[in-house]
Design brief:
Layout lengths: L11 E7 L5 E12 L2 E6 L4 E6 L3 E6 L6
Antiparallel strand pairs: 1-2, 1-5, 2-3, 3-4
Amino acid sequence: MPVNIEKYVGQSVEIIYEDSKGRFTQRTVAVFSVRGGKVRVLDWGKRAFRTLSASRILGATPVKHHAS
């Protein structure tokens, strides 16, 4: 069942993501936009913007706040 990531736009979430090589990662990201199956996020761990494939996001949980 796909994750409805659109409901998290404007929020920080912890996601489980499968990359193109089949590796699973857990990341904390801020979701900026969802368009055409792509999700624009700020990856807090890498401190960089990333574009992720929405179909590869396996789970998402809201984060109350981001600790720096």
